[in-house]
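Database export, one record per block. Field names are fixed; values are copied verbatim from the stored entry.
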Amino acid sequence: ILMVDEKGKNMKCLTFFLMLPETVKNRSKKSSKKGNSSSSSNGKLPPVCYEIITLKTKKKKKMAADIFPRKKPANTNTTAVQQYHQQNLNNNNTIPAPNWQGLYPTIRERNAVMFNNDLMADVHFVVGPPGGTQRLPGHKYVLAVGSSVFHAMFYGELAEDKDEIRIPDVEPAAFLAMLKYIYCDEIDLAADTVLATLYAAKKYIVPHLARACVNFLETSLSAKNACVLLSQSCLFEEPDLTQRCWEVIDAQAELALKSEGFCDIDFQTLESILRRETLNAKEIVVFEAALNWAEVECQRQELTATIENKRKVLGKALYLIRIPTMALDDFANGAAQSGILTLNETNDIFLWYTAAKKPELQFVSKPRKGLVPQRCHRFQSCAYRSNQWRYRGRCDSIQFAVDKRVFIAGFGLYGSSCGSAEYSAKIELKRQGVILGQNLSKYFSDGSSNTFPVWFEYPVQIEPDTFYTASVILDGNELSYFGQEGMTEVQCGKVTVQFQCSSDSTNGTGVQGGQIPELIFYA
């Protein structure tokens, strides 16, 4: 069939191949009767193939993706396309349109239509634990192309020809997320299902999806979920994620230990945290967190949360808590009265605090090293003058950005240039107008040009490549030192810090001079 326009140009050809069953049958019979007969006239049969030769054109062939690069279907088909996309979200929906293929210009889009669709499905999965299963359709070829596990399952030497496969250890939402990646080349992750999706990606060896899950977890990592993610990262053997978790737990230890997620970790992870030398936390906080975990563990083991059972579930992990390193007040008012210690243990620890000859203890008695804070100093010199720098309730502010994740613990501030003085400082850290941390405290200035640290209650996590605003409002001796020759970029170890002026600054502080000479951080 030739198709031409009105002028006879742009000719196209459709080629049809026709083979009739009777013709093939008769041809076979006649060939067997005649044997090796070479008679061309008797041996001729009606042709079984008809072909029209395509006329050559000067135009170069293009793939559909070249012609329609990520182009949306025409407006006339928009409703139909949206309808089909909506059907993909639901299970067991086939496409009724006879020419749905024409709505999608690329193979990627046509393949995506098959996602979660019963049309041409040759396998079904019953996913989820008993009582929470979901039946999902699949297409063996597509799945085998996307996963070596599916390839072995359907086309390997030990392949089983099953129409229905049960997968009780994967959540339906996570399995759907993996199928969406395999069919549509799209990664759709959510905070409440990303761990389950990572498990599915690991199980079926879909490495790029697994990497995307890890990246998602790293970017959403915080003190609230760091302990749980630490436990999972060890399970999934993801060392990079494990290291990121430790960075957060070390720097924001008290927030991490007080989080609800801490009580959900397994015993092995609990031991690894209690052994940690670099935990930046008071030991009384570590002790209280361990007791909270023990109470929840009793519930998991269906035990009454008595003192005896708490001690039982803690086991030898109790002695990883460095009780002898607590402040005496914390021990006397906390651990000693908790009931978790035996009478002999309590007496021995009291003697450890007070006696010259200290008894032997099962508890670790060496203080944790914690983290050493780093200081980023942004001025090359400082000065004072008779009419500067004054404080009248106005704000000194500066913006900064880092190239690696750090945790801001506080600011270094200048003090009085007229002898010793006490200052009241309200420090604040914001991102796009949202307050991330603030504190009101006092510090004593000895009259020197040194900087004096002022701390936040908890270190504040700072993400890379985003500007944050550091602010302080000082109340005290009006005349103080101030910085000069400010730098727009400072290298502190492996961290690069950039500075720029802040519109919140109403007291004269900027990049070139002013207050807030130092950022104190953990990295």
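Remark 1: Residues 1-87 have pLDDT under 50 and may be disordered.
Remark 2: The chain has three domains: 80-220, 234-354, 374-522.
End of record.
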